[in-house]
């Protein structure tokens, strides 16, 4: 039988984030939702960010039903002022997960300037503003974590993905520069670079086809990405910083 990832996934139950607060952007869906559930299972109080209040409530209910704590912090990250306001609404957080984003695939000639700007505002600028606003308090405490969502698309070229790929390469670059800036004062900054993942955003047939190009011959479940993020923001990864971890079924290894 071929593994699908569902059979492989075993829930991490180590409660090593007790007393910590985590802001997860884009936690109302897909990978961000899985990360929110993962960090709550590890004991963190989770600030569930997104735009869709209905889906946010579902994620919060799921966390609370398992005995965890969460609250909704809405913001449209396409608007820089909303990103700055989100940092204020969040208050002091120990863990920041820069996950929110969207993709656009098509001929480069067809990408209009407004969509290009919105892509970079949501995928890149928002993470920059949030980290800049929230990291100094972590530095002052001498501890904290930032975890960024990059992608294999930031490492290899995907036809039709020039602009999206560049946003994800930026997240990898941020990871190294922020590690250089913040880690000497105790704040670890890492990224995961997933391959194809089954989420609401992704077209299922495309995800499946891309999954077949990986060494494992399949796409990932969102929980398989969340497991790695849960590890990266926990004390179990205490000597890792500035790393971009490929979670792509080996797609970029060959
Ligand atoms: N799926 C993949 O194959 C894959 C692979 C590699 C990397 N990634 C990366 O993983 C991250 C999550 O992707 P996903 O597939 O889980 O996507 P998803 O299911 O569409 O979820 C995207 C999340 O981001 C939020 N979001 C998007 N644009 C926003 C904006 N302008 N303002 C506020 N919130 C916004 C959405 O909030 P609302 O719905 O509430 O508005 C939603 O919670 C992205 O950074 C993506 O680039 C995905």
Automatic annotation (TrEMBL):
Family, as annotated: Belongs to the short-chain dehydrogenases/reductases (SDR) family.
Ketoreductase domain mapped to chain residues: 20-195
SUPFAM superfamilies, per database record: NAD(P)-binding Rossmann-fold domains (SSF51735)
One MF term in the entry's GO annotations: oxidoreductase activity
UniProt-listed PANTHER family: 3-OXOACYL-(ACYL-CARRIER-PROTEIN) REDUCTASE, 3-OXOACYL-[ACYL-CARRIER-PROTEIN] REDUCTASE FABG
Coiled coil: none
UniProt organism field: Subtercola boreus
InterPro entries on file: KR_dom (IPR057326), NAD(P)-bd_dom_sf (IPR036291), SDR (IPR050259), SDR_fam (IPR002347)
Keywords recorded for this protein, A-Z: Oxidoreductase
Name of the featured protein: Short-chain dehydrogenase
